[in-house]
Amino acid sequence: MRPSSQLTLLALASSVFASHGFKRHFRRSSDLRARSETALAYYGYQNSTLTACGVYSNDTDYIIGLGTDYVTWDNKDNCFKHVTVSLRDDPSTSVDVTVTDACKDCGDSANVYLSVAAFEALSELTTGVLNVTWSFDDDSASTSSQAVATTSTEDATTIQTTTSAAATTTEATTTYAATTTYATTTDNTYYATTSSSTSSSASSTSTSSSGNVGTSYTTSTDGWTLQTALKGQSLIDYFHYDVEAADNEGVANYVDGTSEGLVYLDGNENVIIAIDTTETVSSLRNSVRMVSTTTFNPGYLFLFDIAEIPAACGTWPAVWFTGSNWPDDGEIDVVEGVNYYTKNIVSIHSGSGCTMSDWTLSSLVQASLVVEGDSNCDAYVSTTGCGCSLDSTSSFGLPFNEADGGVYGLEFTESGINLYFWNTGSVPDDIVAGTPNPTTWDAVVQYAASSCDPDSHFKDLMMVINTNLGGTFAGDNIWSTDNAGGQGSSCATITGNSDSSNYILNTGSAYTDVHFSFRGIYIYTQ
User: Fold this and answer.
1) What is the chain's pLDDT, residue by residue, as a tens digit (526 residues)?
2) How far apart are CA 211 and CA 217, in angstroms?
3) Which of 72, 146, 188, 441 is deepest in the core (most CB within 10 A)?
4) Which helix (H) or strand (E) holds 491?
């Protein structure tokens, strides 16, 4: 957490993700509408956020956000028109989408963003950015909405639209169809509900609002017993807040999360840890660093059930442990990454005499060293040493969130330090039952006690959850680097801003719905 890590490891390229801050634009005539545009298409998560067209869209809706030549919060002339988007290299692969939003951060005015469902009709999400052509459908070019059926009541007007498109694969043609209903509410905003289907089978990720980890107090076969289950308010109360400017040259201003409204419970009793969204701040942007009042020495198993991790240009979220005398008291990083990374980083940092053993290096089948050949964990020698990037491209950021999160595990004993990870739906049954047996799990990284004795190098560790902004990792070192941590285009390219601090301090709307969401933290002892 302290140092930056030079990671050069897919383009989930977008600060366009439905972070719809209000911004006034010069009104452009809808006559500027092009018959056909050649453009880049990104994808964006909707996050139940109000769009420029005044609707709340879902990821399953077949929608498009157009550049501000076509749609702004002031100019809605093109809202709810139909657009056909085709792959530039394969025009037969196309999708029919409905205009619901402005893409204010897409760069060139022709560029667009697509909902997750629409993007997947053309390609896999891992492609990140597509070369496309798009045009307004002739039958929607002269109207502001396509009404298949309109019903009026005293309280609401419902507009129902049906869209369909064909997406060609090498094996077969798959037809996607979605029906979206827009209805006015009493305050004249809109909500959207969608039912969708495909002609081929599609995988679905089960949601886990109740959590992935059971709360049995029965001792497991491996001898672990649940000591503390932190959920909802008890999780919040377990921590105190650091109130100070961030370290590592970050531009975060750490504040009391509850009093500032950045830490709270959502409707599922998940703990939300957010970032201030004031559009422009002078020198620092409010964020949160939570530190446990309890400290830990070897003899614990921790399971972190997390639904969402902050994912946006400029963010540096982490879940980690550190002693008060860094680095001699040690540091263990369980969750760490920046910007739009898709691969989680796990690492340890220590004082002198701690390395990764040859056995540890040979056991890396789900991860790789951040810096090839650098297996020295001694922070006096290397601040990036023995850090490992997971191979899973859904272990961090937007793909992790889209997968309904998952569980990270830390086994911290005299025998060594083992780190684990599973997405929701793949969590071992013994964890779901609340009787964890780590001897049956496959660790992503194992730091052997033979080359780094936990008793000697890791003392009185505090548990920390924080989101730094910019700084030596998310800013200076990585901001302009392509292909880092599973992220394709750099944040300098995505945002059009070469200065990370300038972007972070002047684009608060980029952090709308960008937050940690914790279902629970579970602490076991033997």
Assistant:
1) 543 333 333 223 222 222 222 222 222 233 334 457 888 888 887 765 668 887 777 888 899 999 888 988 778 889 999 999 999 888 899 999 999 988 876 777 788 999 989 999 999 887 778 899 999 986 544 333 333 222 233 333 222 333 333 333 333 222 222 333 333 333 322 222 233 332 222 233 333 557 999 999 999 999 999 999 999 999 999 999 999 999 999 999 999 999 999 999 999 999 999 999 999 999 999 999 999 999 999 999 999 999 999 999 999 999 999 999 999 999 999 999 999 999 999 999 999 999 998 888 888 889 999 988 889 999 999 888 899 999 999 999 999 999 999 999 999 999 999 999 999 999 999 999 999 999 999 999 999 999 999 999 999 999 999 999 999 999 977 999 999 999 989 999 999 999 999 999 999 999 999 999 999 999 999 9
2) 16
3) 72
4) helix 491-495
Every domain of the chain with CATH number 2.40.40.10 lies at 30-198
Fold (topology level) of 30-198: Barwin-like endoglucanases (2.40.40)
Nearest to 494 by CA among 213, 7, 106: 106
Tokens linked to 53? 């067209």
Question: Is the Cβ–Cβ distance between 119 and 125 less than 8 Å?
Answer: yes
Please give the Cα distance from 262 to 255 (Å, whole number): 9
The strand order across the sheet containing 331-336 reads 239-241, 289-296, 461-469, 315-322, 331-336, 345-349, 388-390, 367-369
| Secondary structure (DSSP) of 135-156 | EE-GGGTT-S---SEEEE-SS-
Q: Is the separation of the CB atoms in 212 and 519 below 8 Å?
A: yes
Contact, 58 vs 194, CB < 8 A?
yes
Q: Which residues contact 377 (CB under 8 A, 6 or more apart)?
A: 347, 348, 349, 350, 354, 355, 356, 385, 386, 447, 452
Q: Quote the tokens at residue 472.
A: 């030596």
Check: CB of residue 42 under 8 Å from CB of residue 78: no
SS3 194: strand
What residues does CATH 2.60.120.200 cover in the chain? 225-525
For residues 35 and 140, the answer to whether their CB atoms sit within 8 Å is no
Give the Cα-Cα-Cα angle 373, 375, 378 (nearest 5 degrees): 135
DSSP state of 508: G
Overall CATH class of domain 225-525: mainly beta
